[in-house]
Each structure stands twice: as C-alpha cells, then as structure tokens.
Amino acid sequence: MQRGIAEGGNETPRSRATLLFIARHGNLLLIRKKRGLGAGKINGPGGHIEPGETPLEAAVREVREEVGVTPRAPEERGNLRFQFADGLTMEVHVFYATDSVGDPVETDEAMPFWVPADALPYDRMWADDRIWMPVFLAGKFFRGRFFFEGDRLQAHSLTVFETYASFAAAEMQGGAI
User: What is the pLDDT along the chain (177 residues), one digit of tens a residue?
Assistant: First the structure.
C-alpha cells in the first residue's frame, strides 16, 4: 500500500498551486478567500499553476489577479504537500517578496489586508499555518506534509533547511522527506 503525502509518500499531487506573501514595514499582505477551497479562511494570495507555467510565474500572475499588485523579486521559501481524506492531493510552492508595485484592491476572489507579521490571525487560517509560518517568518526554508480530514489537521511532518541550497537539493530529490 502506498503511503500518503503526509506520511512521506511520493505520489504526484492532483493539483499544483502557489502562495506568495508580500512583506512591507513589518506587515504581511493576507487575504480573506471568497471562493473555492478554503473560502472564508485567511491565507496569502496565490492559486493554481497553469499548464506551461513555472511556479514563480503562476505566483506572480495569481497575486496580480487576486489583489492587483505585482510582487518584485519573489523568492521560493518552501514546498507544502497536502492530502485530504476525500482524495484531493495538492502541492503548494511558497514564495516571499519584500517589495511590490501597486496598492491591494478587493476582487471577486479575495479581500486583501495588511497584518503585523507578529500577530497573524491563526485562528482564522488553515491549521497547518501555525506549524510552518513561524519557520517562514524566520527566513528559513522548509518542506511540509499535511493530512487533513475536512479542515481538521490529522498528521504532519516538517523539515527545515537553513539555506536555499540545501532546500533546493532536497527538492531535486523529490518524494519523501
């Protein structure tokens, strides 16, 4: 029997997506998601990767579409894999930027707002965010695996990397952590 993503299995996720967090003056740009998976939850801007797009291209496009800003010089910080009890599997590339062009605007997909990075509203976010966001905010790189039943986190693993080089080497190997 093949192990699931949260337990270190290496099956190909059915869905590939991005998150891109923009920091400005000690604040992070977050959104209240209006539709789709996680509607009503607080998250970072992002979304699905189109065929032929790189994760970085998708992250920038999705931020423009969702909140009307263009991130400058985003860097990849992490990779998250999710498995849901209903069978959905998802891989999410997590990016960080310290600059952007434009002011956030509300769209039919998201309501953007700035929040102090040290006061994230975890109680209104996905349960896994409490696990990996502190690592992300500390400037480290990471790979996480999470198993959800509905919106309840059932199992997880997280590997932290001090450098981008060690993170990238692990990503090249793929599969289990």
Answer: 234 444 544 567 789 999 999 999 999 999 999 988 888 999 999 999 999 999 999 999 999 999 999 999 999 999 999 999 999 999 999 999 999 999 999 999 999 999 999 999 999 999 999 999 999 999 999 999 999 998 899 999 999 999 999 999 988 886 543
Contact 137, 115 (CB under 8 A): no
- Nearest CA to 4 out of 78, 82, 92 is that of 82
Cα angle 43, 39, 87 (rounded to 5 degrees) comes to 95
Q: Is 47 helix (H, G, I), strand (E, B) or coil?
A: coil
90-to-4, 6, 26, 51, 145 alpha-carbon distances in Å = 12, 11, 30, 15, 10
- Selection from 167, 1, 6 nearest residue 83 by Cα: 6
Rounded to whole angstroms, how far apart are CA atoms 102 and 92? 25
